[in-house]
Amino acid sequence: MYNIIPNNFREIGRNRQIMKFLFTNKKDFIINTIKNAEKFIKIIAFQFTSEEFVKYLIEKSKAGLDVELITLPEDSYSKQEAREKISRFYKSLRDNDVKIYLCDWEVGDPTLTSTSMSGDLKEGGGNKWYSLHGKLLITDKVAIIMSLNFIEQELFESYLSFEKREIIDQFLSKYQKCKELFINKAKSQKIDGNLIDLLDEDDRNNIIDEFDRSKRKLVKHYSPEITPENPINPGLYISPFEGRLRNILCDLINSSDEFLNIVSERLFDTDFVKLIGKKITDNEDLDVKLLTGPPGIIRQNIQKATDEFRQIKVFGGDIRALDNLHAKFWLTEKYLIITSANLTKMNLGFRKAKNYWRSNTEFLYIDNNPETIKLAREEFLNKFNSADTIEAVLGQSNKAQSKAKEYFDLFNYSSKKEAKIILGKFRLKFAIDTERNIIKIAKYASILAKNEGTRLIEKNHVIMGGILLFLQKRASTLKELNESLLEICLESEIESSVQKLIDLNYVETENEYYKIKIEQLLI
């Protein structure tokens, strides 16, 4: 027998039958899990391109185990060379009695996007965006939800494994449901996968017409009847068919009181960033930390990804980047959610007209065991504290250095690299501080409007908010306030706003100085 527990693997519970959590860039655990299987191996994988894992599955099949793999077709890869390699792997597996099921259901817009790995197909299939993105590994001994793709590279991955029979059975039931949705022959249709029977009539007819024309199984969205908005409850789920992942993430964020730690290979979702900003402004004591890959890996729009990465810091969260990160899990003091989904629009899903839903198919496991949460947070903080800070990621980027060079050029001076880097970090810090100040003014203005019983923020609210910001930094005289604000508003507006703040009991005077009564403002 092989040892299936690596040295840095964290076991939860007195009985090792409970569960285990891992956040690592080593594959030993998965390799040994496969080697230790005695009866069956069932895998769901977004990618399966590793010759090493092909060999392991063939060995187990030859030893008499029932080995099954659900993955994507060869044309999920854009390069012909990669497709030919995958075809050889699939043939070798089939020749050795490994059952391979190819999930060729697509979701969304059929046009090519830079997030799709599929390119143009010579045979007329068009550009494709396959829907299945989940990852599971189940044997007769262990059930694992993970972020791992079966590829050559060693990336930082997240795993949650279980040895309890009842949980293995739960995973097997989800595996079977996935086969029924996408693989098994539909009861009343010529298209494989009983998902076709769950769609409403118009969508079903559209898919059948498209299938007759191009042999593609393309669904644009799912009806609300088959994509429930379930609350957070422990267990394994297939999203969106057992819960809308974005809604679950929103509930997780909104329910957090002490800390919110999120790991995702990709951050590219404006609505998520806005939600984080709202949560932090509502609870400034919340410890928000995000660990992602560098924004440069977002092929669609690097500048937008960089802006979203930076915006988390502006809102008051702490965000860092780790190279070769592929792990995906969300953590609060109440829950650990390990998932296959990135923080992107299609992974999380989004609402369409009439409450229809568009998203990839993802897996998630929700756990509320305090010991699991504690150990997962220790693993998170260990990686987070060693990751690159935003200053290292953005402040010393090539773009930041180029901008720093422009400033030095104003004075006809050349500069060393370290000089450009440090100036870039200064520029980033000042820019973030400026945006944070603007957010504070907006917050104060909204508080003032609310206290007046109005939902409409007016000019005088903003002026008073600006005055409160200055006074929060230090007590000031009226002359000093005028000197700071006269380029923005009139002297009479400044004086009347100061007087109104005094009348509202938000500002008090001490000799000739005005001081903010911050505790009164935040009541």
Explain what you see.
There is one protein chain. The chain is 43% helix and 19% strand. The protein is α/β, with parallel strands linked by helices and 523 residues long. Strand 3 (40-44), helix 2 and strand 4 form a beta-alpha-beta unit. Helix 8 (270-282) runs parallel beside helix 9 (302-315). The chain is elongated.
Give structural attributes:
523 residues; Endonuclease, Chain A; Arc Repressor Mutant, subunit A; disordered N terminus
CATH superfamily of the largest domain: Endonuclease Chain A
Q: Termini separation (Å)?
A: 64 Å
- Order of strands, main sheet, comes to 1-2-9-8-7-3-4-5
Query: Main beta sheet, described?
Result: 8 strands, mixed
Give the secondary structure arrangement, pairings included.
Elements: E1 10-12, E2 19-24, H1 28-36, E3 40-44, H2 51-62, E4 66-71, H3 80-95, E5 99-102, E6 105-107, E7 136-139, E8 143-146, E9 157-162, H4 165-182, H5 195-198, H6 201-214, E10 217-219, E11 235-239, H7 245-255, E12 259-264, E13 267-268, H8 270-282, E14 287-292, H9 302-315, E15 318-321, E16 329-332, E17 336-339, E18 343-344, H10 345-348, E19 350-351, E20 357-358, E21 362-367, H11 370-386, H12 390-395, H13 398-409, H14 417-451, H15 459-473, E22 476-477, H16 478-485, H17 491-503, E23 507-510, E24 513-516, H18 518-521
Parallel strand pairs: 3-4, 4-5, 6-10, 12-14, 13-18, 14-15
Antiparallel strand pairs: 1-2, 2-9, 3-7, 7-8, 8-9, 11-21, 12-16, 16-17, 17-21, 19-20, 22-24, 23-24
Describe the structure in brief.
The chain is an alpha/beta fold and 523 residues long. Helices cover 43% and strands 19% of the residues.
